[in-house]
Hints:
The structure holds two protein chains of two kinds.
Chain A: H1 17-29, H2 33-39, H3 49-65, E1 82-87, H4 94-106, E2 117-120, E3 126-131, H5 136-145, E4 148-154, H6 161-172, E5 177-183, H7 191-208, E6 215-217, E7 221-222, E8 225-226, H8 228-240, H9 247-251, E9 254-256, E10 259-262, H10 266-271, E11 277-286, E12 295-298, E13 302-312, E14 334-335, E15 344-346, E16 351-353, H11 360-378, H12 384-390, H13 404-418, H14 440-447, H15 452-465, H16 468-485, H17 489-504, H18 513-534, H19 541-553, H20 559-577, H21 581-600, H22 604-624, H23 636-642, H24 661-665, H25 682-693, E17 696-698, E18 703-705, H26 709-719, H27 722-745, H28 751-769, H29 775-782, E19 789-797, H30 799-803, E20 812-815, E21 823-832, E22 846-850, E23 853-857, E24 860-864, E25 870-872, E26 881-889, E27 896-900, E28 912-920, E29 927-940, E30 944-948, H31 954-959, E31 964-967, E32 972-978, E33 986-990, E34 1000-1008, E35 1014-1016, H32 1036-1043, H33 1072-1077, H34 1106-1179
Parallel strand pairs in A: 1-3, 1-4, 4-5, 5-6, 25-29
Antiparallel strand pairs in A: 2-3, 2-14, 7-8, 9-11, 9-20, 10-11, 11-19, 12-13, 12-20, 13-19, 15-16, 17-18, 21-26, 21-28, 22-23, 22-27, 23-35, 24-25, 24-26, 27-28, 29-30, 29-34, 30-33, 31-32, 31-34, 32-33
Helix pairs in contact in A: 4-8, 5-6, 13-17, 14-15, 16-17, 16-18, 16-22, 18-21, 19-21
Chain B: E1 6-9, H1 14-24, E2 28-31, H2 44-56, E3 57-58, E4 61-64, E5 71-74, E6 77-78, E7 80-86, H3 93-103, E8 109-117, H4 127-140, E9 149-151, H5 156-165, H6 171-185, E10 201-207, E11 217-218, E12 224-234, H7 239-252, E13 259-266, E14 276-285, E15 290-296, H8 308-325, H9 334-342, E16 348-353, H10 358-371, E17 376-380, E18 392-398
Parallel strand pairs in B: 1-2, 7-8, 11-16, 12-13
Antiparallel strand pairs in B: 2-5, 3-6, 4-5, 8-10, 9-10, 12-14, 14-15, 16-18, 17-18
Amino acid sequence: MDGKVKKQKQHQQKHSGPKAEKKKLKKQNGSTEEDERKRNPKAFAVQSAVRMAKTFHRAQDIKTKKHHVPVVDRTPLEPPPIVIVVVGPPKVGKSTLIRCLIKNFTRQKLTDICGPVTIVSGKKRRLTFMECNNDINSMIDLAKVADLVLMLIDASFGFEMETFEFLNICQVHGFPRIMGVLTHLDAFKNNKTLRKTKKNLKHRFWTEVYQGAKLFYLSGMVYGEYQNQEVKNLGRFISVMKFRPLVWQTSHPYILADRIEDLTDPERLRTDPKCDRTVSLYGYLRGTHLKNKGQVHIPGVGDFQMSDVNFLPDPCPLPGTQKKRALNEKERLLYAPMAGVGGVVYDKDAVYIDLPANHVKQLQEEVRPTTELVQSLIETHVTLDAKMAASKVSLFSGSAGLDPTDISEQSGVQEGLREIHVWDAHTQTQRRKVVFTGLEEEEDDVSGSSSDEDDDGSDQENQEEEDDLSTFLKEVRDKSEKATKGSTPPVKKRKLEEMQGEEEVIAEAPAFADSEDELERGEADSEGEGEAERAGDSGHCSKESEEDSDDEEDGDEDDESMEEEIGADDSDEEEEQGTFKWKEGLQQKASAAFLRHQEAAPNLRKLVYGSVVEAEDSEEEEEELGGLFRVNRPQKSKKVQADALDCSHFNPDISHNWELEEMLNSIRDCFVTGQWEEGQDAATLLKEDEELYGDFEDLETGKVHKGTTGEQDQAEVKMDDEEVQKNKRLEKKRRLKERFDTEYDDGDATYFDDLKEEMQKQAELNRAEFEDMDDESRVQYEGFRPGMYVRLEISSLPCEFVTNFDPHYPVIIGGLGTSEGNVGYLQMRLKKHRWYERILKTRDPLILSLGWRRFQTIPLYHIEDHNGRHRLLKYTPQHMHCGASIWGPITPQGTGFLAVQSVSGVKANFRIAATGVVLDLDKSVTIVKKLKLIGYPYKIFQNTCFIKGMFNTVLEVAKFEGASIRTVSGVRGQIKKALSTPPGAFRATFEDRLLMSDIVFLRSWYPVSIPQLYNPVTSLLLPVGQKDSWSGMRTVGQLKHDLGVRNKPSIDSLYKPITRAPRHFNPLHIPKELQKALPFKSKPKLLQPKGKVPRDLKRASVIREPHERKVAELLRALSTVHHYKKKVAQRAHHAKHKEFLQQKEKDEEAKMKRMKDARKKLYRIMGQKDQKKQRSSLKGTPQDD
Amino acid sequence: MASHGLTYEGCNFLRQRLVLSALSGKRVKIKNIRSKDDEPGLRDFEANFIRLLDKLTNGSTIEINQTGTVLVYQPGLLYGGTVEHDCNPQRSIGYYLEALLMLGPFMKSPLKATLRGVTNDLTDPTVDLLKSTALPVMKKFGIDGEGFDIKVRTSWYSVFVEMQSNPGMDKVAMHVILYLNLSLVLHPQVVKRGMAPGGGGEVVFTCPVRKTVRPVQLTDPGKIKRIRGVAYSVRVSPQMGNRIVESARGILNQFLPDIYIYTDHMKGANSGKSPGFGLTLVAETLNGYFLSAEMLSTPQGQGDPILPEDLGRNCAKLLLEEIYRGGCVDSSNQSLALLLMTLGQQDVSKVLLGPLSPYTIEFLRHIRDFFQIMFKIEVQKPLEDERKGGDKVLMTCVGVGYSNISKTLK
């Protein structure tokens, strides 16, 4: 056979001929649909308008279905590493896969996967791998932070419950990207079963995730690792994957901690090992901006206030922007401190720092700021106090250190010096002469030449007037002075003092902000000078108002008047000396005020935000002043400020005299009647139009109009430099383009496009606004931005968190939004999971995962009736949503949650009990349950009746007067009035007469209060190895089961043998009258039972004679014989007849055959005859016929 | 779990603190309220304000010690709905309304507050001022819609007076004004004006609910195109209004011809309990921003009486002062604008203001306390030859991403 198989003829491509030429032409031109439309317009004509409308509609539907609500793109320029969570049941190959991927990306081997592992995978991408163990706590926490989930499935076993549980968790908390990975494929020996299994698993996976979700196959192991090629492919998939923003993640900051340090004082630890710990947590910030001092939640631990946040240099930075394609070996970084890579290795009671040779440089950089501290703490053998005493502070790196003893020596002097600021006007004429708020200082200037008395007076005033702000400003000024002038001793001391103060107080302000400010101020000053030279005296008045605002802050409405007063005082004093002296002072004042304005501007930020800190500072100083004694100052100004009038009015600046023409002129351009900017001026716009559309030819007259552009340009060249011109041209171009766009493009734009564009603009603005700022100050405005490596310090973590720390469990720090730290009532929509086997009972404690948190609470289930009433349910409905109300953490509406009954242990069946969404956060919830009050009538009149047993007092009845009541048989009634005895009895009327056996009930609704249980699941605090055994409040059922308590059942509900007495029915009695009226059919048939037949009617019995008997006997015998004979004869006859019939049939057949033959013969002859006849007729009729 | 609270001293800025507390959900404790005063403790109007806050919220707890010097406020849910409140005549309705403006958009159900008391007094921004300046500011933030209004008077009378005082106005303009006023008249508003000290006025403030506030870029105020105003008088001669208008126009006409100042004279039941008169001026810019100023007569029996001519002139000067300060938001609404910026999405918002008022500065500090938001403050100095008033301040911030947690999801 093999030899005979004919080989198919191969296709021969034509190289010549019309077909080949046609093809060639086609290839060259590449005919498109357009061509066909042109060539054959009829084929593409509209056949049916309806059909066309339908297709168009459908196309539009599909298009709009793809739209999502556009959101502002808030991803930072340098995004944080992507969190890849590797999930799967135990022994499926999670660690192996992570190891293989790490090896693939970094060429390094990591034996122990412990905690998050961060690697640089490409030029623009970093990855953080985290293994998720089989504990449902970890699964829930990691689903909330995952960007990509690698879901490992043991193909030789099939899906396990954990997989589905994790998928359901993901569905609730926003669906991250999920990629399935099939392992253990080498267990299949048969190729066909392998293929079948793959297909089955794939389709099941698709129904869970989405159609066409990627499922990866890892076919087998080579030396305990997956095949290189397959891992490489997986890695490629990961590094090109795109992610969608998830609502919760994009609206909350969060950190997956990859490093933890205990900063608690070792002395405290020694004395009280169970004290609350100060812990610093490190990790990449993800999500949104993190504000300092905010509230955070650590799932598994609880809510905490961050005591400090700062950002550190990136331990795993992205490579610089080089052009080359691949990463070199040095850039393939790996950072996993918990696993012992990247510097710090954890042991039970020590921290080792590991510095591999190739990473020395980077690690040192990374470790520097904090680990030093930790190390020093660990290595401390002396107490902090002793250390403090021994320590020296050096202000500048070159200068000698200062001892604390020095400071204490100087402090006395300092206080004295503090208020006296001798200004050397001659050396510092040109700048920052007087910048104080009060006028006293300016006076000091004057007093440089004037009497001491004057000085003292002003000093006193100074002290009285002293408020937080002015001291602050003074300090700032001193500093700046120092910076320019070089260090004079008293100033230096002040600076030292400040530094100390800052070290204590300013935590959020960058440590060296002051020096920067100095620089800034320096610049600002020089600028200010420039301005001072050219600006007129009237132009800067409003700055004064800014300055004044400090004073106003003191709360005094008429601070200006105060100022005036002071001014008046001065003048009085000075008048004594000379009549014209006040003029001099005025000039000084004016110039001082002017300079003060110059100073005011850059200080505005400090004025608003800095002063508070300073105020506290000054207060402290005052208190510690004497050491033993406290100076009891009246602090008038402060009190006045605190209790001043609460009013939003902004009093006008009295220095502005709106009668003056000068003043009026200063706001001329604020009105449309004033001068316009060059870009908007009508004249310029007109001119520009002319430039744009200047050249045109009048077609009618044939006259050519020329724009005057060229000449003007030339003129401009003469006037301005090229820069200006270029700008102008650009501006012109831009405007032209805008106009063009509005004319031609915008017609097409939809609402969606507009919205998208708006979002795009906002995103650009967000990026650009703080771009050129340094991180230190940027952090203050925006908070810490995602992508930064930050260090959080939390001061009061429970000691179990540190002692029972297990790096295999994720430590997530989730930031909380405004008021998410509060607890309140929540109303949610809930549905029991269809795979969960039991229904849930009201008031059974349930563990919810909501927002960042996992907590136990007591839900009440309810359903909304048609009239809007929330009726309590005892159990959740089987296949329906119901409402649930809980007492729990305030979480924004629309947040999903899931519920489990217990987080401890692994049960075989599905653990997720219910899922749902938060609807409302109402503190007044009205859930009601049905209440039936039962009473019994004890006296019955016609329709009125007295009822007892429903209430206990007259007062209770009074509450329910007019309420409708009902009997079990359905007779309706109303409560009328209470009766005096027995207490609680009342009169009621009904629509019908009641029976004494009736039961009356009143249907009412009773509000139920929600139990206030909020019990966070503190699974991370449990000892290592028992972290999955958290158990909270038990349900009543569990308690009863555990304690062996059994309720005594009510006697009525017990089963007893049924004994049924036989029923006895009375005979039916129909009255005679009725009987008469009945038709005969229905009349009871009154037949008399038959009596005895009278004797005469009875027939006599026949008694035969013996002879007769014999005869009869014989006759019977004869007839029997006869019957038999007849029967036999009949049978024989029957057989004979049958035979005869057969014979007859045979004959018939034969006859038929014969006849058929005969007929056949006849027909043949007839046919022949016909033929002959025909033939002859064709030949021509013979003459003789 | 209990959220940490904030502690302040003294009764100053009480409204700010309570409002921010209600919005942020942070507990606030205020100590030493007039503790050194002869009459220690909270004043009546403050207690009244707290009562109003209590009406608006649900589940909040307020603790005041016996002398009234310590107040602890644990905010609840902002509920809104229909609220009627008798304001204390010590402060005008503006005092209460300023807080309501801040809280209104973040309620559970749309707010309809009827406030009774003093509509106009010297210390607080009057209702007319808030209506003409605060509402446009809020509209810029996307708080807009059918029921967003502070209902304050309109009467036929004003139209005719305006026509009389404007002999140059042509017929078309007259018709326009007639039409506009007619349309207003068609929606009858029960509004009564009540001057200090007696009060007796009534204001209805309605505000829709928003889930989020949108970020804004209010950086270019534009030039002032028109000035409008209301000169009102109650229980005095109706001529007062005209006298005020004359004098105010005298000053403002130097800058702009487009000035209409309506006079509003209330009679009978609508005129409250005390006599008085006043003027509110509003300047509108090309880009739709409003700057305003106002001036009132001194209340009956307190201080020297003021001539209507002086009042008009002074008020016009106040408006010029306000224009000199400039910015996109006028000085009395700075804090409102900054609050709405803070509560915006996590996007950059910018607003150009005049010099910051002390009230605003304190407000900024409070915002930092409650929301951990700091503003970037940049001073924009006017150019050499520019004649556009004094320094402006450009405030920039990134919103906290606040969403109205009171609103029900259906």
